[in-house]
Amino acid sequence: MKGGSIFKKIIYSSVFLAGIPAILIILFLPPLGTKSRLQIEPVDKNSSVNVYTDLNSDTISEVVRSGKGVPYFHILVLNNDMRVYDQWNLQDSMDLDMSDFFFSNFDHDRYKEIYVFTYKDDSLFLNINEFFDPAGTKLDRIYITKIRVINKKVTSVIWPAGFFDTNGDGKDELFFSIQTGFGVEPRRLYSFDIVHKELKSSQLTGEICQFPKMVDSDGDGRPEIFGLMGASGNSKTWFPFSDWSTWLMVFNDSLKFKFPPVEFPGLTNLLEINSYTNGGFKGYIVSHNTGSADTTVIKPRIMFYSLDGKKIRERLFSDLGFNTLTRLVVLKSRNADRIYLLGKEFFELNDQISVINRVKSPFNSLFTYSYIEDIDFDGEPELLLYSLSEEKLVIYTAALQKIGETKLKGTQQLFRFSHYSSKDHENKTFLNAGGGYGYFLKLRSNSYYYLGYMAYAGIYLLFFGFIILIKRINTLQVVQKESLNRRLVTLQLQGIKSQLDPHFTFNTLNSIASLIYLEDRQLAYDYMNKFTQLLRGLINDAERIYRSLGEELEFVTTYLDLEKLRFGDKFNYEIIIGENVSQREQVPKLVLHTFAENAIKHGIMSRTEGGILKIRAEKDKDYLILSIEDNGIGREKSEGQSTSTGKGLRLTREFYDILNQINKKPIRHFIIDLHDETGDSIGTRVEVWVPIEE
Description:
Distance between the termini: 22 Å
Number of strands: 41
CATH architecture of the domain at 471-691: 2-Layer Sandwich
CATH superfamily of the domain at 471-691: Histidine kinase-like ATPase, C-terminal domain
Largest sheet: 6 strands, antiparallel
Number of helices: 8
Radius of gyration: 47 Å
Structural class: alpha+beta
Strand content: 35-45%
CATH class of the domain at 471-691: Alpha Beta
Helix content: 10-25%
């Protein structure tokens, strides 16, 4: 009961009631801001900066750029102050549309290598330079394969995938794919063992694999390789996995299929493949898009596949409200992978392919590019979207909360991001937008972010004040109603009093009559005087329900003195007041008298002598405990001897029941039978617990 009372107090409190609507509104409010602010710093267009990286592990970035001199293409390395370290001249041609240069540390020492693909006629070469290590790796013109050249223009594109130590020699192999337009050869995945200068490749397919990724999808410590797969219909000659279809392909680090490729017939199909992990599930999420007018081509959709290539579930984009080209993005945050479909609206999906969140697109048209980069170096990726037509860059957190947006000039060239660290250890992200456009991006802490929470507090306080106002109005109505109820209860209590007073008067007059009959005039006078005091008290308190403990003790003392005059030494009484009890505490009128009278009449008077009546007043927390204890014959024996109807106790219970309709806390009373060690009755104790008003 006590727990239930506490629970009711909580749920009916203004603090709790105000929280319910406030929380509901806050949940549907858009974000009030982000913890970070985007700062962007354009770089002089004439500086021709390509990329930043720390080649020698001194925590300070070097500047690396490519260029064309006479007669060589070259890679130039500079320090933070734009002073030249050295220049690496290349023997063959370099084409950034074919392949940009990139960096890694395959031998895991303190020096990074620079990797660049060059070509001569239709021959593709790999060049590696561990720039700051005089004894480091330097490989020039490592022949890779024949590439496609039409009208002296290279139509092949090389996509670096990553590095992994496949053979366990402590040195990583380089993985990359080659995409060829207007022809099939070469369309393969490759790995190159830098130590042994060995080249391996996957089997020739018609499939084009762009933007290859190396991800440990199954958690075995070895990567799987997959990418953006496309069908171009360039070849009319049959060979396995024709480019008249798109194929779902996943390779292991030995460049073998993880499972038999899954076919999606039709030209201009695109498959975006991403690994996906959530809880115990590991597999792949695949989006299928097509721009074909061929109605026999399967409709665009999103699909889940198991690690062994079995389709688990799918859903059409049209069922989700997408009727245009849709981009699939999987952001791998610390907590769980998050799935987004990006089109004219941005949808977040769960692994049942149900929409759980949607965000309005910040662009008036479809954006051009999407990138996933950790631009603030906190281990959580950010999503960057760019519209070339609107020249606008927008950045989101992994939870799809917008960090900021900015105007930014770019080109059709894919953006390249790199980490800049200055001599003063200031960290920024450098964005190379092509065409000589470069920008430093930095997410700075938004010192005003937490002020946004004041809006939440304001919403809560608004509801809190509203509920307080409603409660006040309701309280006034209740008080008016309660006032009428109190009047009705008072009339009921007065009816009870009219029954109590004659009962007491009858017993007293009998005692006085006995004294007169015995011709004890002095004692009769004293008795009458005492009785007069009681009558005066009853008359003066006729309209009162409560009186002070001191007044009640005075009344019951007068009554007991009268009974002592009547019965002599047949009984004695004792009144004990606890140290922390104030006699100003309010108690129901006659609370002691009724039970004292009952104890004398039915308990003590049945004894021959030695009767004792003890009245105690003690305090326990927020209750005043009044006890009336006698050493009479007990209730069991008195029931057989008494002719009482029990009307006094019944009226007392009714009296307390009515009072408890008004009180915040109930008056409780207990009748306890007292026994000795042998089980014989040795009296009765009555306890009345009266709540103390605060």
